[in-house]
Amino acid sequence: KISSFYNSANMEALIPVINKLQDVFNTVGADAIQLPQIIVVGTQSSGKSSVIESLVGRSFLPRGTGIVTRRPLVLQLVYCPKEDKEHRSAELDST
């Protein structure tokens, strides 16, 4: 079943593979394979940053009044083994 493939373990296993492919394609400039991408577009203060943070599961973008995140943003998922997750989470919390 296709739905059983899209479980957390399988999706996490794809992250390092996709990262390697992105690195190779960026190095050689190949566009032969289109990797998954999400583009968020909307008017000012319509929740674009909130959508991105919701997908990532962490607040990391600047907040304020007016135009705050006026720039292109490229995020790349990186697989973090379970034993490293607590350490990396602590690093992020201290910044």
UniProtKB/TrEMBL annotation:
<dbReference type="InterPro" id="IPR027417">
    <property type="entry name" value="P-loop_NTPase"/>
</dbReference>
<dbReference type="InterPro" id="IPR019762">
    <property type="entry name" value="Dynamin_GTPase_CS"/>
</dbReference>
<dbReference type="Pfam" id="PF00350">
    <property type="entry name" value="Dynamin_N"/>
</dbReference>
<dbReference type="GO" id="GO:0008017">
    <property type="term" value="F:microtubule binding"/>
</dbReference>
<dbReference type="GO" id="GO:0005739">
    <property type="term" value="C:mitochondrion"/>
</dbReference>
<dbReference type="GO" id="GO:0000266">
    <property type="term" value="P:mitochondrial fission"/>
</dbReference>
<dbReference type="InterPro" id="IPR045063">
    <property type="entry name" value="Dynamin_N"/>
</dbReference>
<dbReference type="GO" id="GO:0003924">
    <property type="term" value="F:GTPase activity"/>
</dbReference>
<dbReference type="GO" id="GO:0006897">
    <property type="term" value="P:endocytosis"/>
</dbReference>
<protein>
    <recommendedName>
        <fullName>Dynamin-type G domain-containing protein</fullName>
    </recommendedName>
</protein>
<dbReference type="GO" id="GO:0048312">
    <property type="term" value="P:intracellular distribution of mitochondria"/>
</dbReference>
<dbReference type="InterPro" id="IPR022812">
    <property type="entry name" value="Dynamin"/>
</dbReference>
<dbReference type="InterPro" id="IPR030381">
    <property type="entry name" value="G_DYNAMIN_dom"/>
</dbReference>
<dbReference type="GO" id="GO:0016559">
    <property type="term" value="P:peroxisome fission"/>
</dbReference>
<dbReference type="GO" id="GO:0016020">
    <property type="term" value="C:membrane"/>
</dbReference>
<dbReference type="GO" id="GO:0005874">
    <property type="term" value="C:microtubule"/>
</dbReference>
<dbReference type="GO" id="GO:0005525">
    <property type="term" value="F:GTP binding"/>
</dbReference>
<feature type="domain" description="Dynamin-type G">
    <location>
        <begin position="32"/>
        <end position="95"/>
    </location>
</feature>
